[in-house]
Amino acid sequence: MSRSNYSDNGLLAQLHGEEPHRILPHLQLARLKFSEIVYKPVEVITHVYFPTTSVVSMVRQVGDGTFVEVSVVGNEGLVGLPVFLGAKDSADRAVVQFAGDAWKVPTEAIQEEFNRAGRFHDVVLRYINFLLLHLAQTASCNRHHSGSERLSRWLLMMHDRVVGDSLQMRQEFLAWMLGVTTGTVSLAAIELQDAGLIEYRRGKIIISDRKRLEEKACSCYRIVKGHFDMLGLFSSA
Amino acid sequence: MAAPPKQRHRNRILAALPDSDLEQLIPHLEPVSLKLGQILQMPDTRIERVYFPTSGIVSLLATLEGGETVETGVVGREGMVGIAVVFGVERSTIESLVQGTGEAMAMKSETLRTIIKNGGTLHDLLLRYVHSLFSQISQTAACNRVHTLNERLARWLLLTHDRIEKDNLELTHEFLARMLGTRRAGVSVAAHSLREAGLIDYTRGDIEIQNRRGLESASCECYAIVKTEFDRLYQGQ
Predict the structure, then answer these.
(1) What is the ipTM of this complex?
(2) How far, in Å, are A97, A204, B30 from residue B39 at the CA level?
(3) Which residues of chain B have a pLDDT value below 50?
(4) Bridge partners of residue A72, in order along the sequence
(5) Would B212 be classed as within a structural domain?
(6) Structural domains of chain B, count
């Protein structure tokens, strides 16, 4: 009953004409576990993942033990972008941020469809454009906005991509996501909790007042969401 | 009027094209000069032309609602300005600003769109370039979060030095503050400490690179990571 349909992923939902007949036979449902690594830097990307209920973070390592999240992929996107850009691997680490399902496709099969330069190709390119704007916004946000603004933004991005109000969370993970120390994360989370926006418990965060969380978040949330809505992924073509 | 071939080949994307593909492009390329401070693309306006720089350097800026900016990436003769056109969209939120005088080959966006519509060598080269641009922007997003201003200033000067190909950079501290997403006073302190270490010298509106190796040691690893990614792009040429 909880089984994902291929159209639960926004990019796959855009397939039309002969495309589903060519692509669907290659799809396999994968269950992604919390904190599982989908791919690592310089590891050949053998499969591309199209999340349905899972969320995957793209994380950069800077220095020895510091990681910073640079983008988030949920049911609007795909994990394994470099294979469409003539590369075999990525400098990013793809880490499962929220456990759930994803459709898994062998790299060669999906590249073949992309190379036909048809609708799927164009949909992927539009998604790349969205991701580029998302990245650029994050580069600026990371520079200028406070910990609690960025935490609010991040929680909203997650909330948009998962079912329910409860987000499974590990504090050190959250620190990576925001590129700060675990101490800073705690302070920011406590600030949001005291204001009644979230409930911060061991291992999870519950969104209690989404509307006010939106007010607390920096404008980057709304801006990236605007680009996202313009993609029109879940509207029927 | 067709451009002189030698100059044309200084752009590495154009240089990587087979002769027959390049010949097809020549009638559509127009040599233009890039003037310091010139805005090639304003955010949210239609992208009329794309630019293949043959010298000089262009900054990709992300501006926040409060007017704060930060540079998310740079484009020199390894790339193309107006990458959104490749994704089939007409406008972008990113501003493209000339930060080092030079020259470029300009082409109508519509022409590029038609040429790459059905794939082909230029299409594939541009996507490979997008991969390294993504990598650069991701690294910048992480770097902006965790590295000190001294490290980031050194990184920025090195990336610029690579593209300007001379030791004197026409720059004010105000301009650097915009690029690095900080206050002018902060830039002055950082520049002063690089000067004390004998790495650079500066007068009003001009920075001279005096010890490039020293600057490489003073920079965070982000410089080397971005450089390696770009070098990989054109390996074997």
Answers:
(1) 0.88
(2) 39, 46, 18
(3) 6, 237
(4) A57
(5) yes
(6) 2
- Hey, is the C-beta of B85 within 8 angstroms of any chain A C-beta? no
A66 touches chain B (CB under 8 A): yes
Residue B45 DSSP code: S
- What CATH code is carried by the domain that includes residue B196? 1.10.10.10
Query: Within an 8 Å CB–CB cutoff, is residue A62 touching chain B?
Result: yes
**pLDDT at residue A237 in the model:** 37
A89, with CB counted inside 10 A (0-12, 13-18, 19+), is middle
- For residues B123 and B11, state if they share a domain: yes
Cβ(A90)–Cβ(A82) below 8 Å: yes
Range 99-158 of B in CB contact (< 8 A) with A: 117-119, 123-124, 127-128, 130-131, 133-135, 137-147
| Residues in CB range of B49: below 8 A, 6 or more apart | B82, B106, B107, B108, B109
Same domain, B69 and B177: no
Q: Do A139 and B128 touch (CB under 8 A)?
A: no
B181 vs A129, A140, A218: nearest CB: A140
- With H, G, I as helix, E, B as strand and everything else as coil, classify residue B55: coil
The crossing angle, in degrees rounded to 10, of helices B173-180 and B149-164 is 110
What does the pLDDT profile of chain A (237 residues) look like in tens digits? 356 799 999 999 999 999 999 999 999 999 999 999 999 998 999 999 999 999 999 998 887 778 888 899 999 999 999 999 999 988 899 999 999 999 999 999 999 999 999 999 999 999 999 999 999 999 889 888 999 999 999 999 999 988 889 988 888 888 888 888 888 888 999 999 999 999 988 888 999 999 999 999 999 999 888 888 887 776 543
Which pLDDT value is given to residue B45? 92
CATH number of the domain to which B103 belongs: 2.60.120.10
Q: Which residue has the tokens 């270490």?
A: B197
What domain range includes position B135? Answer: 5-143
Q: Is residue B230 part of a domain?
A: no
User: What is the distance between the alpha carbons of residues B95 and B72, in angstroms, rounded to a whole number?
Assistant: 10
Protein fold of A6-116: Jelly Rolls (2.60.120)
Domain ranges of chain A: 6-116, 145-226
| Closest chain A residue to the Cα of B143, Cα to Cα | A62
Domain A145-226: top CATH class:
mainly alpha
